[in-house]
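A student in our group prepared the protein record below, which I am reviewing. I have pasted the whole thing underneath without changing anything:
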Amino acid sequence: MPPANPDPKVVRRNRKVRQGVVVSDKMDKSIMVRIERTVKHPLYKKVMRRKKSFMAHDEKNDCHVGDVVKITECRPLSRRKRWRLLEIITREQA
């Protein structure tokens, strides 16, 4: 097994970053984020919307439903959580 590199200047690989809307904040330190993307149908060329939900880690329980957030990939934190909250872009007005 190679030794861990203690050099602080080592750069991590680029991690995926996605932007979406919080659809659930009922869990402790977890949120569900809905990511929407557009794809063109290969045969009919119609632009379609595709949605997918990701579970993300919210350490401070800071997000609420309707917030637009940015999430990034990380190591597995639980069975379904592989993303963590990067920043809150806009907050939902109550």
Remarks:
- The radius of gyration is 17 Å.
- The chain has a mean pLDDT of 92.
